[in-house]
Design brief:
Layout (H helix, E strand, L loop, with lengths): L3 H13 L6 E3 L5 E2 L6 E4 L2 H9 L3 H10 L2 E4 L2 H13 L8 H4 L3 H14 L22 H12 L3 H8 L19 H15 L7 E5 L5 H10 L2 E6 L2 H13 L6 E5 L10 E7 L10 H11 E14 L12 H7 L8 H10 L3 E7 L1 H17 L1 H7 L2 H19 L3 E9 L18
Parallel strand pairs: 1-3, 5-6, 5-8, 6-7, 8-9
Antiparallel strand pairs: 1-2, 3-4, 9-11, 10-11
Helix pairs in contact: 1-6, 2-3, 2-6, 3-17, 9-10, 12-14, 13-17, 15-17
Length: 432
């Protein structure tokens, strides 16, 4: 009987309809595939059962998180190969039902079933979130989703993010990313503050304030009074401690509060950095209108948000299974044009859009390097499955930004004065 790795390689190529550009090592120690290529390690037959019961991305994700699959060699190259074969084959890729019409594919599936052993679906890893009906985005479900993503331990995030504790893309000087992560994150915070024209005596609302880095920078460097809101109890506790240590408690207030419950308007400026992805398409216009209402006439909004490429059929869009089940439950991404339209419908005048997707790729690679460099401590701080989720999520996301499958944009918008004035400089990108 052929060794397991050779059989797996043959089955995979029949199913994918393409050569497998990776090496395979199976549970019996056998190997197959191109020498020197990244190696997909299939540790046990349970990995096959996961793929058979949930073909495609979710089955692969479950096997990865559970440790049934691993990758040796160049992690990014391996993910790039897999994304081309499985995750990002495009809207014209054949469906499983279409593929199963082919005799060779049906034979490959039968072979995998025989190799997999017991015909019992393995339980999902405990890190997986139970699937829910989409589109709800109530205050309760949003709080639960945010807690899943952020309340995994501040110490774990310190490993990943480093001293800056900023969980959004940094702003780099060069494409080589020669500056430190902390310097690039400081530059991003400063960029946001300059775009919002922050100065002493003004009030800033930081929606989704995270661990307080932007609030602290704005108060310390620009003299503003800041209200930061988050739905994460752990983030809020950490941010309040940092605020107190900086001696800024008289200028920065951190609340565990939904942005929809903020009542002490008006504010001179609103920042929303990496938060709008949690809002959802059905609630996005409400989100935009709420932020508009919280601003003074002439006030500015800085909306920093990940964007996806538009689909031919937008109604068919859904967040990919891995992200929804393990990373951002109920999160949704929108094309840039959709976001701009919704902000304009809410009454905003959009004054500037700065695409910074390459910056996010550089940032994610630094976060992955931080995690890998302190992997043993990360495992002590959270579950092995959770650490594997973050490594896969961040590395795959870096590739998505590099390949222009994802983007991220800083959108600067203003609530114009009643007579139409914007209070903006005549020359673009002269923020103060």
């Amino acid at each position: 009987m052929p060794e397991a790795a050779s059989r797996l390689q043959s089955f995979a190529e029949q199913l994918l309809g393409a050569p497998l550009p990776m090496r395979i090592r199976a549970w019996d120690g056998s190997q197959a595939g191109p020498p020197g290529a990244p190696t997909l390690v299939v540790r046990n037959r349970r990995a096959l059962r996961r793929l058979l019961w949930k073909p495609g991305e979710l089955g692969l994700a479950r096997a990865w998180v559970a440790g049934d699959l691993d990758i040796e060699g160049d992690f990014y190259a391996a993910l790039d190969h897999l994304s081309g074969l499985v995750w990002n084959r495009g809207e014209d890729a054949r469906s499983l039902a279409e593929a199963l019409r082919e005799p060779g594919v049906r034979a490959a599936v039968r072979g995998l079933v025989r190799m997999a052993g017991l015909p019992v679906p393995p339980a999902p890893p405990r890190e997986e979130v139970a699937r829910r009906r989409r589109g709800l985005h109530t205050k309760r479900t949003d709080k639960r989703a945010v807690s899943h993503h952020y309340d995994v331990g501040n110490d774990f995030y310190e490993v990943v993010l480093g001293p800056s504790m900023v969980y959004s893309c940094a702003y780099w000087e060069t494409a080589e990313g020669g500056d430190t992560l902390e310097d690039a994150q400081r530059d991003k915070l400063e960029l946001v503050c300059r775009k919002l024209a922050l100065m002493p005596g003004r009030r800033l609302l930081d929606v989704g304030c995270g661990w307080g880095s932007l609030a602290i920078h704005a108060a310390r460097e620009h003299g503003v009074h800041v209200v930061g809101v988050t739905l994460s109890q752990e983030q809020a506790a950490y941010a309040r401690k940092r605020v107190a240590e900086e001696g800024l408690a008289d200028r920065v207030e951190i609340r565990v509060q939904d942005y929809r419950d903020v009542t002490d308007a008006p504010f001179d400026a609103v920042s929303s950095v990496g938060m709008a992805e949690h809002v959802g398409s059905e609630q996005y216009l409400t989100y935009a209108r709420d932020l508009y209402a919280l601003l003074k006439p002439g006030g500015r909004l800085l909306n920093h948000q990940i964007a996806r490429r538009p689909h031919a059929d937008e109604d068919a869009y859904s967040l990919d299974g891995f992200i929804d089940a393990y990373v951002f439950p109920d999160g949704e991404l929108a094309p840039l044009g959709t976001t701009v339209t919704q902000l304009e419908r809410a009454g905003f005048e959009v004054r500037d859009v700065e695409p910074i997707r390459e910056h996010y790729a550089l940032t994610l690679r630094r976060w992955v390097a931080n995690l890998e460099a302190d992997w043993t401590r990360a495992l002590d701080l959270t579950s092995p499955g959770r650490a594997r989720v973050w490594r896969l999520y961040m590395a795959a996301s870096a590739l998505a930004f590099e390949r222009n499958r994802l983007g991220v944009n800083q959108i600067l918008a203003v609530r114009s004065l009643e007579a139409g004035g914007s209070g903006m400089p005549l020359r673009a990108r002269t923020w103060n």
